[in-house]
């Protein structure tokens, strides 16, 4: 088993590790080490056994290895349509860190592809597909999805991600609208490869916030056994967020408060924040992000609703 690392037992990726922890996604130690790690993550993240609800308040449920020691032993890949500024794009940054492989258009990918064109949501049931074939994303602009030849990158295992909140600087606070590194990390977390998720996020200054904000949701999804269960968990999360928003609105109304205050969700609706896909590094994550998951309601950004 990996050593328990005090810094990472909080479930947060460590800052600035990516630059030091460079390594190819295909880089492996010995096969024995690799098998041991997969066996370990497999045991630690089995939905039934992974979550200790009490401990989960403090921990993401994994025993961690230092990010520098973690090597991602499944293929991680992207089709890159060059829509974004190369210096600011999370997919390209992963490539510079040696953590993702670029696929040519027309190349088939045997693993799970997280894509806005997916129908089924990703779930722990996808574990074997990822172990055998890996995980891929489509690096493109959200504003230019129509320019992407999705028919040429079709995969038998395309997946949507369930409700999760972006914490990247471009689409910060928007549900479902994750960038590539967040999308890969989200799928790894849900499927049961938390160390891999942290390894990817550790190269980004704001990466720590992603798990912090989404932990309550990820904890629910990773307990599920099937896509249907993840979809049901998502529906419940959405309902709860809506009723909590309505409730707080009602309380303010009853107290005679000015209801003209801005709904943070409405500020972030599609199109109101610009549709740049530029990534920029932020070193500090403000207090706002801490409360983000508590205040957000639902916006109409679901990939299927565009
Ligand atoms: C549209 S691109 C934008 C990338 C951004 N320019 C960056 O720097 O990373 C994000 C990709 O992540 C994946 N993704 C993000 N959110 C998703 C979701 N809710 N469901 C499925 N895939 C998603 C898809 O592969 C999508 O094409």
Compute the average pLDDT: 74
Lateral arrangement of strands in the main beta sheet = 2-1-5-3-6-4
User: What is the strand tally?
Assistant: 6
User: Uncertain runs with pLDDT below 50, 5 residues or more?
Assistant: 1-63, 265-276, 278-300
Rg, Cα atoms, Å: 19 Å
**Largest sheet descriptor:** 6 strands, parallel
Number of helices: 12
Oligomer: single chain
Distinct small-molecule ligands in the complex: S-adenosylmethionine
User: What percent of residues are in strands?
Assistant: 5-15%
Structural class: alpha/beta
Compressed to H and E, one letter per element, the order equals: HHHEHEEEHEEHHHHHHH
Shape estimate: globular
Helix content percent band: 25-40%
The span between the termini is: 44 Å
Task: Looking at this protein, list some descriptive labels.
S-adenosyl-L-methionine binding, six-stranded parallel sheet, Tsr3_C, transferase, 306 residues, globular, alpha/beta, single chain, binds S-adenosylmethionine, 37% helix
Could you describe the 3D structure shown?
It is a single chain. With 306 residues, this protein is of the alpha/beta class. The protein has helices at 17-20, 31-44, 47-50, 90-96, 127-133, 180-191, 194-201, 207-222, 227-254, 264-267, 287-290, 292-295, and strands at residues 76-80, 101-103, 112-114, 120-121, 135-139, 158-160. The protein has a six-stranded parallel beta sheet with strand order 2-1-5-3-6-4. Strand 1 (76-80), helix 4 (90-96) and strand 2 form a beta-alpha-beta unit. The longest helix has 28 residues, at 227-254. 45% of the residues are buried. The model is unreliable at 1-63, 265-276 and 278-300 (pLDDT under 50). The structure holds S-adenosylmethionine.
